[in-house]
Amino acid sequence: MTSATAHTAMHLPGTVGQPRLEILLGGSVVLIVSLLRLWCVHTPLTTCWSGGDCLADGWSRQLALTLMLVCSVWLYSLRTLGWAGHSDSSIVDRLWSITPVIACWDWLLSMNQQAEGWPRVLIMTLLCTAWGVRLTANFALKGGFSGGEDHRWSVLRDWFGANNGRLSFSWEAFNLLFICSAQQLIILAFTSPAAAAMLTADRPLNGLDFLATILFILLLIGETVADAQMFAFQTEKYRRIKANIPLQGTRYEAGFIQSGLWSLSRHPNYFCEVSMWWTFYVRAPPSASHTSAEGRKAHLGARASSRYEVMKHDAHNCPYHGSWMVRSLSSTIMPVRQLMKPHYSPRPMPQIFTVAAGCGTINWTLAGPLFLSVLFLAPKASLDLTEAISSRKYTGYAHYQRTVSKFVPWPPAREGTPPLKVADKLFIGWFIIGILITYLIDMEQVQVASWTPMTNLSLR
User: Fold this and answer.
1) Which residues contact 143 (CB under 8 A, 6 or more apart)?
2) Distance of CA 308 to the CA centre of its chain
3) Band of the pLDDT at 329, cuts 50, 70, 90?
4) How far apart are CA 306 and CA 290, in angstroms?
5) DSSP per residue, 222-252
6) Considering Cα of 19, then 224, then 142, then 31, what sign does the dihedral take?
7) Would 413 disulfide with which of 198, 270, 397, 417, CB 3.0-4.6 Å?
8) How far, in Å, CA of 65 to CA of 195, rounded?
9) Residue (of 42, 46, 50, 36) closest to 324 by Cα position
10) What's the rounded Cα separation, in Å, for the pair 172 and 177?
């Protein structure tokens, strides 16, 4: 909800502590420096800075516009210092669902429509647009474009001492580093897989694209349902309160929603939001066209003489392949493959595990969903902040925390059932990771089996 809707006062001690300012500011600095460092080293930005035209490159152009937007939003937020005593953070909330759509359409329009990868970027752009339209409509429905702001900002200002009419340097530093800077960079980061797809325009659609698209749509529907359930519950609750209709004995008595998707997760909308951008990242392995002699020549370069040269050429579109991570994976997996299959011919590592438009399982766009997950799931981050507020409002929220999963939808625990021990959680996590690793190995085997022997390449 936003400050434009009704709200419940906090009168309880709460179950989650307040975030510490130094951790929030330090984390923001680490995030900003990490993303800028990553993008300066592992994206086409390096090339355009060394003498090219940065505005002609779609990714570099959007990064420049984002940095300009950071400065503009921060200066605009200072306009309220005179009468409110603090900067205005609401503008960033209004941009969250708009700037990714603009970036994706810019990258799509920068491409040649005859490129094999153009349909992929078109699908990603349409998915991002659907997400942006839904989120913008949801925010507008809650009064976000009518003077309201995320209700959590007001709580943070109280904790930072910025709601008493006096200038709070703590809040202003937080506004600059996190609200205006870090969040805008995270927005560009989780949209960046579309830029990677633009840069690898020679890869046509494949089965993984359709799987990721279906998952994205299902998660989008899930987020829509969760937000609709929350809005309907809060609207009816406050309608009854204003009409002096007793809440006792009804589902509104506790004050917070516990039905629908909210009976399986305390934050199902956040789960869908974060998961959507992970599906945005997982896309597009190389096509069969790259197994032909012509495809290999166009993609890898003629007569590559070493694995390093193959990687370096492939890094023109996916620069992260030249990193220590890929080299270490290559040196580890290749010998194992040779032991398992004596006649196995080594292939360039970027072509075995492939995600994000053929850029490899680990590539520079991973920072987007990774930092978005940190934004929601890290201690004292968005989820903990929300729970710190809710546990101070509602007496039954502590019981809700003990019985319902915090993030991943899961059947609620029965009354009296002890919570999972740390060892149990680690075992479940290990089991899930094992399944995923097995799936990735199977994907690799399928791709290796379908690969034409690379007799024209001498890989030493």
Assistant:
1) 2, 3, 4, 5
2) 31
3) very low
4) 18
5) HHHHHHHHHHHHHHHHHHHHHTT---TTSTT
6) positive
7) 417
8) 14
9) 42
10) 9
End-to-end CA distance of the chain: 59
Residue 193 has a pLDDT of: 93
Choose the weakest-confidence range: 65-74, 329-338, 406-415: 329-338
* Angle subtended by helix axes 21-42 and 367-377, to nearest 10: 170
Judge residue 51's burial from the number of C-beta atoms within 10 Å of its C-beta, 0-12 exposed, 13-18 middle, 19 or more buried. exposed
CB 265 within 8 A of CB 201: no
Average pLDDT over residues 303-310: 33
pLDDT at residue 443, rounded to an integer = 58
Q: Are 180 and 76 in contact (CB under 8 A)?
A: no
The chain-wide mean pLDDT, for the chain, equals 78
Amino acid at 69: L
CA distance 418 to 41: 48
For every residue of 359-389, DSSP letters joined together read T-SS-GGGHHHHHHHHHHHSTTSHHHHHHHH
pLDDT band at 422 (very low <50, low <70, confident <90, very high): low
Instruction: Report the amino acid identity of residue 125.
Output: T
Angle between helices 183-199 and 99-109 (to 10 degrees): 20
Nearest to 268 by CA among 235, 237, 224: 224
Residue with tokens 């349909």: 119
pTM here is: 0.78
Single-letter amino acid code for the residue at 287: S
CA atoms in the 13 A half-sphere facing the CB of 40: 6
Three-state secondary-structure class, residue 279? helix
